[in-house]
From TrEMBL, chain A:
The entry's keywords: ATP-binding, Nucleotide-binding, Transport
Organism: Marinimicrococcus flavescens
UniProt keyword Transport present: yes
Domain named ABC transporter: residues: 6-247
Lineage: Bacteria, Pseudomonadati, Pseudomonadota, Alphaproteobacteria, Geminicoccales
Protein name stated in the entry: ABC transporter ATP-binding protein
Cellular-component GO terms for this entry: plasma membrane
UniProtKB/TrEMBL annotation, chain B:
Main location: membrane
Organism classification: Bacteria, Pseudomonadati, Pseudomonadota, Alphaproteobacteria, Geminicoccales
Entry-linked PANTHER family: ABC TRANSPORTER ATP-BINDING PROTEIN (PTHR30482:SF17), HIGH-AFFINITY BRANCHED-CHAIN AMINO ACID TRANSPORT SYSTEM PERMEASE (PTHR30482)
Organism for this UniProt entry: Marinimicrococcus flavescens
Name recorded for this polypeptide: Branched-chain amino acid ABC transporter permease
Transmembrane feature ranges: 34-49, 56-74, 86-105, 112-129, 149-178, 209-228, 248-275, 282-304, 324-349
């Protein structure tokens, strides 16, 4: 395997005495869809927080395309090409769907502190934002305030915003949580489409989604990666069955 | 929406341009104060309403703008070749400079901590200024004179008024343009969710600092205009009353609408002018108004107007007319009762009445509204209390009839949005 696009080496994170991540090892290959599964409280969201720069690891290394990113600020990590969504919807509630997406597209174009042109006159930005609104199937809600959207629409927007900055590595934290079966199928299709030529790392509880969408799976239990492999390998792994899948089946 | 804006502009701009020469000197002066307050409030609201940062110390930037302008005026008196109409620019530059320094620290924090840092910085200046003779003229403050320039004498209030009008119009235009720029849109995102902005690749400390500095700069221009108009300033310009006034103007006028703070500044400044001769309790009424707006109409005047414009088509105006009229009458009844009580108390506790009381040796009737009232008669107090009670009853009745009509309008509005 060539250099992984995202790599964690012996990453630890403790909050006071609580050692939440204890030596996590992970290597995500460029272009793959990689799931992180594990019981509630295993530390999946914490792992995402460490990778995306919300927290600094207590020790260990995190590399993005070979470059150390642990300890960098979240905004710098995003500019290096890694973007994440949030388990709890985290949008700009009093702005329209279109504007939510456009903030990210602006960043993609390096338009950050521009006070000298009209937002409405940024042609490429507005076109790309519009295109992304359509791709996440919110065209009919383009001008609705994000705070007024239905829950599943907000989750779609959450994904759209994560993709809007043009990052190559996408982290999605439980994108289908709380969705109906139908909405989940919808969201899976969306994720498949949107991450076609990207690298995806996704936390997901729905095993149908995981086995259907992802190339490889890592199992996180008590802050450690217990196993990594293809869906078939993971299904067959005894330790995984004991630690996690067993209780699902039961 | 566009046509509303244009109409509004004509309705507001025309009287502002044409009327002042026909007004009294006092009113002309008040209009200058109004313009200054309006610019200050919109600058403040760039930070508050758009950037989501509530500053409790914006007097710092207003004040520094005033002093910087006075310093430049002194230099012009001594022969420096700066055109007089450009003097408020010094206020803008000083506001920008102080805004960058103070903002660097304040924007490290959000929420209450941000507010407290701004409060502390302004208080610092407020206590420092009287000690610092060279910079702020010590306790007495500074004064200077407007020099004639290019055929303009700047001796009359009217000239000052039109110069202020030009500056305020220009600044409001720039602040409006700000909202249409990419960074203006980002400012709203910072307000809604700073964390998400950070995770979308923006250095949010830097971004909030820019918003802060721009707001401070325009506040400085407002302060500069005040100094230009008054030709004096002292350390009280840095005081809490100034910081609080701009908060009041903004919230009463409505922070969610661009021109809301202008409405708040205009209404309160003009009201103060007309009422301050009649009562000493104006600040009390203003405070009560603020509390009532926060409790019952947190959108402020501008926000309410905007809400009605937005639901223009969905609202059943015919059905609303009755209860709205009822609410207006209720408001008048409550206000009348309340004002009666407060003003009567003001008379009863005045030194004039103390003299009457001493001469009469008891509690003599007190004069108010052209007649005499018995302070111990229940009738005196029953009337205003009854008015307030009737007003309260009428208000709640009207409220109960208004609420479902609005619910319906909102429902129709969002459904329309879905199919569009
Ligand atoms: N900021 C924090 N401070 C203290 N404890 C935390 C913090 N964030 C997460 N934790 C703890 O870490 C554990 C793992 O949480 P989380 O990463 O959210 O799990 P998961 O996403 O796998 O369900 C939980 O016990 C949680 O209480
Ligand atoms: Mg989680």
């Amino acid at each position: 395997m060539s250099t992984p696009v995202l790599e964690l080496r012996d990453v630890h994170k403790a909050f006071g005495a609580a050692r939440i991540i204890q030596g996590a090892e992970l290597a995500v290959a460029r272009g793959e869809r990689h799931a992180v599964i594990g019981p509630n409280g295993a530390g999946k969201s914490t792992l995402f927080n460490l990778i995306s720069g919300m927290f600094t690891p207590s020790s260990g290394e995190i590399r993005l395309a070979g470059r150390r990113i642990d300890g960098l600020d979240a905004n710098a990590i995003n500019r290096l090409g890694l973007s994440r969504s949030f388990q709890i919807t985290n949008v700009f509630a009093r702005m329209s769907v279109f504007e939510n997406i456009r903030i990210g597209v602006m960043a993609r174009h390096g338009i950050r502190f521009d006070l000298l042109r009209r937002a409405a006159a940024m042609r490429a930005v507005n076109e790309q934002a519009q295109a992304l609104v359509e791709r996440v199937r919110l065209a009919g809600r383009r001008d609705t305030l994000a705070g007024d959207l239905a829950y599943s629409e907000q989750r779609a927007l959450e994904i759209g915003m994560t993709l809007s900055t043009g990052a190559e590595v996408i982290l999605l934290d439980e994108p289908t949580a709380g969705m109906s079966r139908e909405e989940t199928a919808h969201a899976v299709e969306l994720m498949r489409d949107l991450t076609k030529d990207k690298t995806l790392l996704v936390v997901e509880h729905d095993m149908d989604v995981v086995f259907g969408l992802c190339d490889r799976i890592s199992v996180l239990v008590y802050g450690k990666i217990l196993a990594t492999g293809t869906p078939a390998e993971i299904r067959a792994d005894r330790r995984v069955q004991e630690a996690y899948l067993g209780e699902e089946a039961a | 929406m566009r046509r509303h804006h244009l109409l509004l502009l004509v309705l507001v701009a025309l009287p502002l341009l044409v009327l002042p020469p026909f007004l009294s000197l006092g009113l002309q002066n008040t209009l200058v104060s109004m313009l200054v307050a309006a610019l200050f409030a919109v600058s403040f609201n760039l930070l508050m309403g758009q950037g989501g940062m509530l500053s409790f110390g914006h007097a710092a930037f207003f004040g520094i703008g005033a002093f910087a302008t006075l310093h430049l005026m002194l230099a012009v008196e001594d022969g420096l070749g700066v055109p007089t109409p450009l003097l408020p620019l010094a206020g803008g530059l000083a506001g920008l400079g102080l805004g960058l320094v103070a903002g660097y620290f304040a924007t490290m924090r959000a929420g209450v901590y941000f507010s407290l840092v701004t409060l502390a910085l302004a208080e610092l200046l407020h206590t420092l200024a009287p000690q610092w003779d060279g910079m702020f003229g010590g306790e007495a403050g500074m004064s200077s004179m407007r020099m004639p320039w290019g055929g303009l004498v700047f001796g009359s209030v009217l000239e000052v008024y039109y110069l202020s009008l030009a500056w305020v119009a220009l600044c409001l235009l720039l602040l409006w343009a700000y909202t249409r720029t990419p960074f203006g849109r980002l400012t709203l995102a910072l307000r809604d969710n700073e964390q998400r902005v950070r995770f979308m690749g923006y250095d949010t400390h830097k971004a909030r600092l820019v918003v802060f500095a721009v707001s401070a700069m325009f506040s400085g221009v407002a302060g500069g205009l005040l100094a230009f108009s008054n030709e004096v300033a002292n350390y009280t310009t840095f005081g809490m009353p100034v910081s609080a006034q701009v908060v009041l103007h903004t919230f009463i006028g409505g922070s969610t609408v661009f021109l809301g703070p202008v409405v708040g500044a205009a209404v309160l400044t003009l009201f103060a002018f007309f009422v301050s001769d009649l009562t000493r309790s104006w600040l009390l009424y203003q405070g009560v108004l603020f509390v009532l707006v926060m409790l019952y109409a947190p959108l402020g005047i501008g926000g309410i107007v905007e809400l009605h414009l937005r639901h223009m088509r969905e609202l059943r105006w015919r059905a609303l007319a009755g209860p709205y009229l009822g609410a207006a009458v209720a408001g008048l009844l409550i206000a009348a009762g309340f004002v009666f009580v407060i003003e009567s108390l003001a008379v009863l506790f005045s030194s004039d009445y103390a003299v009457l009381r001493r001469d009469a040796g008891g509690l003599p009737p007190f004069p108010f509204l052209g007649t005499e009232w018995q302070p111990l008669s229940p009738l005196t107090w029953l009337a205003p209390l009854l008015a307030m009670a009737a007003g309260g009853w009428l208000a709640s009745r009207a409220g109960r009839r208004i609420a479902p009509l609005w619910d319906e309008a909102r429902r129709v509005h969002t459904q329309g949005g879905e199919t569009a």
